[in-house]
Amino acid sequence: GPLGTTNKYDTLVSFHHASVALGAHGGAAFLPWHRIYLIMFEIALKQKRSGVSLLYWDSTIEQGLSNPLLSNLWGPTFMGNGDGDVTTGPFANWDATDGRKLTRAAQTIPNQLTTPADIQRVLNRTRYDEIACFQCRLLETFHGYAHNYVGGQMGNIFFSPNDPIFWMHHAYIDCIWEEFREDSQKTNIDTEYPANFGQPPHHPQALMEPFSDFVASVKNIEGLSTFITSGCYKCDRRPKCPNCGNTPNLYCDRVDNRCKPYISSNNCGEDTALVPAVIYCDRSVYGNQNYGVNGV
Prior knowledge:
By secondary structure, the chain is mainly alpha-helical. It has eight helices and four strands. It has a two-stranded antiparallel sheet with strand order 1-2. A two-stranded antiparallel sheet has the order 3-4. The chain starts with 7 loop residues before the first helix and ends in a 10-residue tail after the last helix. GO terms for molecular function: metal ion binding; oxidoreductase activity. Keywords: Copper, Metal-binding.
């Protein structure tokens, strides 16, 4: 909100500050802590609009572009511009809690984001302590790529939730964790907490801070409960070829057999066919026909 004011969003942002969120990063509580954090955020959203659900950002989709900044993700319809102060889209001129406007420095070079192979490495594991212990922070490491890629407040651990894409990114990480849990077919996923958990705030019986000061006392181990996902929410599966989730915002690149985004409409023009990658312009630019390097 405007400098000097306090609102619920800014309060939620403050929960992530490293000085109070001692178990949010660097150990076994990373995933359950952020799961509870996401639920708190979605509850706040539903208080404004009851039927809303939190979306997730599958950043592996942008990873496949020669210039990820040209994705329609960074167009005015979705997140707004990805470079400099955000002046387009629904979050234009957004006031952040660090005293600045919402700003980004999304990189224009490829291969800075998590790859499908990275995600598969996580899903190939069978135990929680293989993806989220003190020394094996596999999913936490991969999650950091998107923070660094977006930059701005998103690249700062103290202020990253200021950028609304933070919640969509962490919703994706949470869904990958849930996919791992479902696919592993284990019977003890509620209690399988690493013995090598890290610092004391990551202890299974430690309270998730600072949540206990504001809403409820939740232990780290309780964040692994299957009740949360079976009773509260489910994740839609990731978009895959050939239908890519039946969304008009993605297409199936049959060369790579991967879903990719259209180029943002404000980057489309007569020279689009010269783009050195198999990417197409937003359908809204040319009606129902897609133009791209393949001329289809």
